[in-house]
Amino acid sequence: MAMAWGQGELFAKANKEEIQRTKFLLEKYTDMVSLMRDFEQFEQDLQQVTIEGESARRIDQTDLHADKTANATILIEKQRWVYKRYQFYTHQLERAHRLIKDEEARQAVEYRYIQGYSRKETILFFRRSLSDSTIKRKIDEGIISIANSLKLLGIYDNDLIL
């Protein structure tokens, strides 16, 4: 039983939907990091392509007349917004990952999601020290731990999850 604190719980537990959302974010983690690095390295190039390219001609196909400059500005701001959201989520995932108490679960999640290996590769990597079912259980325990931490941090209180 969790201790009550005002309207919420002191040690909140993630529900099934929040655990699924956490797993989704973890599966997208390496993609988000990769896109963030690309954006940081090539932001000026992306802006130039947006300004000069056809993507800014019409954002909405129902536009009768396109204001290419305004549309380019909107697309650049959208790219920046996506970058900031990815930055926020990856930082929160890393933070919650560090809070996993079980060392084996933390290592399994690290290898599977943070480093981006497949489930099969993760099982093969840990096979010397743990059984296949234990590795799968440790990954699941790690996901639940991260989901609980994200819930405690208030990540699921807003509707901005991807």
Quick overview of this protein structure:
With 162 residues, this protein is an all-alpha fold. It has helices at 16-52, 68-98, 103-114, 119-126, 132-152, and strands at 4-5, 8-9. The protein has a two-stranded antiparallel ribbon with strand order 1-2.
List the uncertain runs.
Answer: 1-6
Using only C-alpha atoms, the radius of gyration works out to 20 Å
Shape from CA axes? Answer: flat
Beta-strand percentage range: under 5%
Largest beta sheet: strand ordering = 1-2
What is the averaged pLDDT score?
A: 82
**Could you give a short account of the major beta sheet?**
2 strands, antiparallel
State the helical fraction. Answer: 55-70%
Count the DSSP helices: 5
Helices and strands, in order, run as EEHHHHH
Number of strands: 2
How far apart the termini lie comes to 31 Å
Content-based structural category: mainly alpha
How is the topology of this model organized?
Blueprint: E1 4-5, E2 8-9, H1 16-52, H2 68-98, H3 103-114, H4 119-126, H5 132-152
Helix pairs in contact: 1-2, 1-5, 2-5, 3-5
